[in-house]
Amino acid sequence: MSLAEWMPEPLLVMGPGNLAIWQWLGLAAIILGAWLVGRLGAALVIFIASKAAGQTETTLDDDLIARLRSPLRALASIGLARAAVIALELPLHVQHIAGSTLLFLFAVTLVWGALRAIEVTASHLGRSRWATARPSSRQLLSLVARVAKVIVIVFATIGFLSALGLPVASLLAGLGIGGIALAFGAQKTVENLFGAVAIGVDQPFREGDFVKVEDHVMGTIESVGLRSTRLRTLDRTIITLPNGRLSDMRVETFTRRDRIRFTTLLNLIYETSATQMREVLAGIERVLREHPGIFRDDIVVRFLQFGQSSLDIEVVAYFTTVDMPQFRTWRQEVLLGFMDVVEKAKTEFAFPTRTVHMISDAKRR
Q1: DSSP state, 17?
Q2: Sheet of strand 260-268, all strands in order from the earlier edge strand to the far edge
Q3: How buried is residue 6: exposed, middle or buried, by Cβ count under 10 Å (0-12/13-18/19+)?
Q4: CA 345 remoteness from chain centre
Q5: Domain spanning 260-344: which CATH class is it, in words?
Q6: Which CATH fold would you assign to the domain 204-253?
Q7: So where are the chain's domains?
Q8: What DSSP assignment string belongs to 135-182?
Q9: Who contacts 8 (Cβ-Cβ below 8 Å, separation ≥6)?
């Protein structure tokens, strides 16, 4: 049975747009009712989802529910309105307009929710331990979030144009050709951008780290940008390295080492006896083991070789510090201790010497 048969005579009078008065009133009632019922239904769904999210350790789901509250309400209201419009027995052209309008609003609300979800996810990742330990990754997260938003908007626009009947295939083909041309023109920029992404994900260094790039550049990382990385050298100059090249280069990071290696070669005079050599070896090892800054599990003190002008002693140890001023102080203390040991053993450090044999002209004849 049609709803029009239940309507009083005054409501059957035709109004604007070739619609009866009861149909206009029905549209207004549907809009208001869908808004109210949609809010109630969305509130129920959000309440249940919040209870479930409260049982998890992560706060991402809580943030998503809080930010998606409005889009969920809108989606519920639009869905209810779309189902209720059918009962109004609207003319075909009006049904088409109403259905298309509600479908458009539904799609816009989906895009709205997707954009908010991207913002919440990027913000949550920016506050995570991973991002806190990698300051440069925050720029990358912001960039990825913007790119994701653009992708969502582009796909939504393509869907909207397709719904209007426009030739989307030819448009995509044109965009593809333009994209290829742009990629060739911006090859270096894209390479540096992906290099920044690789540096942000792999984290071979951080801002403030002291590094050596290949074997010729040493300095402190001042900033890691989307195109290049700036490094301040020991001469206080600034070197700018493109991220595309830097991601393929060998980078040695000194800041992340757990201790600093100490190595030296001591040269004693050839007049040193075996007894004195044993005394020196024992004294040097004692100096290292008694020093509070030495890692005692890895100490090497060995008579290495008979050199060209000296008896050579190899010394290798590790200082339990990563602070260079502290390392230099401790190294000085250890070297002075070595000098005391050599003096107490009554021997001396050797001077580099060279023997030159002179042959006179008389002997040649």
Answers
A1: G
A2: 260-268, 311-319, 300-306
A3: exposed
A4: 57
A5: alpha beta
A6: SH3 type barrels. (2.30.30)
A7: 3-183, 204-253, 260-344
A8: TTHHHHHHHHHHHHHHHHHHHHHHHHHHHTT--HHHHHHHHHHHHHHH
A9: none
Distant-in-sequence, close-in-space partners of 33: CB < 8 Å, separation ≥ 6? 80, 84
CA atoms of 284 and 48, how far apart (whole Å): 72
- Rounded Cα distance between 301 and 281, Å, is 6
Token pair listed for 233: 């050298």
The residue with tokens 């979030």 is 145
Residue 252's contacts (CB-CB under 8 Å, 6 or more residues apart) are: 211, 212, 213
The answer to whether 227 touches 193, Cβ cutoff 8 Å, is: yes
- The string of pLDDT tens digits covering residues 236-278 is 999 888 888 888 888 888 878 889 999 999 999 999 999 999 9
Tokens representing residue 307 in the block: 């050199």
The strand ranges marked E within the chain are 210-213, 217-224, 228-233, 238-242, 251-253, 260-268, 300-306, 311-319
16 DSSP assignment: G
* Mean pLDDT of the residues in the chain: 77
pTM over 0.70: no
d(CA 283, CA 228): 51
Asked if the domains 204-253 and 260-344 are classified in one and the same CATH topology, the answer is: no
CA 344 – CA 283 distance, rounded (Å): 9
